């Protein structure tokens, strides 16, 4: 019999000489703690205060902000376990939170894109589907998928499990690109027949959706480009470099999404008047221009209320 000492658990196991990618991802998560976590909590507070006059997609916004806040709260635990506790049980709980982030972000953003898509291209159908019960039912379904995926990721050991996430990212990325592209096409087509110019409010919505489309590409394109070619990388390179860097682009959306939402508000609670004016100066200038007809106002209002949380 040979006396052996159990090797202490380490998150860097197998990547001891290639820790740069993991540290990059952890740095992004730390950024989310200081900026994304307060922003998501503020979004939740705003949604609760506006619950008497909710917008159609507030259910999706609230779920997304709550899950991003939960992910941000787990980051200090991740650092403590990395350098202090080194507990495998804590690491399993952290893997569950990573599974939550992997699933809720893309799926709830896809739901928001669906809401915006129906509102712009099928306004009559959208007016018949405004009741919150439809969005609550869809949110429950998303949470069911999230729990199943996160639990499987926590347990581990499933062959080719990473391909599930890759398929999800490819599907949701394609869906969000198509939705936003069709919305931009519809808004661009709705020009004034006299002077061939877009109404200022529609131009504002067009620029907003275009900026959100750019953010979707920034957050998800690295994953779409890198992850499907897993078999072409050396296993250690993919696990130690490609995966952490790709996830970092996904994780930064926890800060980008709430900041975009807050930037679209006319007045942000708990901020000084000077900061509120800086955040909303562009919106106030646009709102002073010619109002839209009643039929168009509802569609643009819907875009404004559903778009901000899309980063992507």
Can you put this structure into words, describing what you see?
It is a single chain. With 312 residues, the protein is mainly alpha-helical. The protein has a single domain, classed as Rhopdopsin 7-helix transmembrane proteins, CATH 1.20.1070. Helix content is 75%, strand content 0%. It has eleven helices and no strands. It has helices at residues 20-49, 58-85, 88-121, 123-128, 132-155, 162-189, 200-226, 235-251, 253-263, 273-287, 294-306. The longest helix is centred in the middle third of the chain and has 34 residues, at 88-121. The chain is globular. The N and C termini lie far apart (56 Å).
What is the fold-level CATH name, i.e. the topology? Answer: Rhopdopsin 7-helix transmembrane proteins
Q: Could you describe the largest sheet, including whether it forms a barrel?
A: none
CATH class: Mainly Alpha
The global form is: globular
The oligomerization state is single chain
Radius of gyration: 22 Å
Distance between the termini: 56 Å
Unreliably modeled segments: 282-298, 306-312
């Amino acid at each position: 019999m040979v006396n052996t000492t159990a090797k202490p658990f380490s998150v860097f196991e197998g990547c001891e000489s290639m820790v740069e990618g993991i540290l990059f991802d952890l740095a992004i998560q730390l950024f989310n703690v200081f900026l994304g976590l307060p922003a998501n909590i503020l979004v939740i507070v705003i949604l609760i205060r506006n619950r008497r006059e909710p917008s159609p997609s507030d259910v999706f916004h609230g779920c997304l902000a709550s899950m991003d806040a939960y992910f941000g709260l787990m980051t200090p635990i991740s650092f403590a376990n990395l350098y202090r506790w080194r507990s495998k049980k804590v690491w399993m709980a952290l893997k569950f939170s990573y599974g939550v982030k992997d699933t809720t972000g893309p799926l709830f953003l896809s739901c928001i894109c669906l809401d915006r898509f129906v509102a712009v291209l099928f306004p009559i159908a959208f007016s018949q589907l405004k009741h919150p019960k439809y969005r609550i039912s869809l949110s429950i379904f998303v949470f069911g998928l999230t729990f199943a995926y996160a639990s499987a990721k926590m347990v581990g050991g499933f062959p080719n499990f990473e391909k599930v996430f890759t398929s999800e990212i490819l599907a949701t990325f394609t869906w969000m690109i198509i939705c936003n592209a069709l919305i931009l096409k519809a808004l661009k087509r709705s020009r004034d027949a006299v002077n061939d110019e877009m109404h200022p409010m529609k131009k504002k919505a067009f620029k907003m959706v275009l900026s959100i489309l750019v953010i979707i590409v920034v957050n998800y394109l690295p994953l779409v480009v890198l992850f499907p070619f897993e078999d072409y990388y050396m296993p250690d390179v993919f696990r130690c470099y490609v995966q952490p860097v790709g996830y970092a682009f996904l994780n930064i959306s926890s800060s980008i999404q709430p900041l975009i939402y807050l930037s679209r508000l006319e007045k942000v609670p708990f901020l000084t008047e000077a900061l509120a004016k800086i955040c909303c100066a562009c919106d106030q200038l646009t709102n002073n221009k010619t109002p839209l007809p009643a039929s168009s106002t509802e569609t643009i209002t819907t875009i404004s209320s559903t778009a901000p949380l899309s980063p992507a």
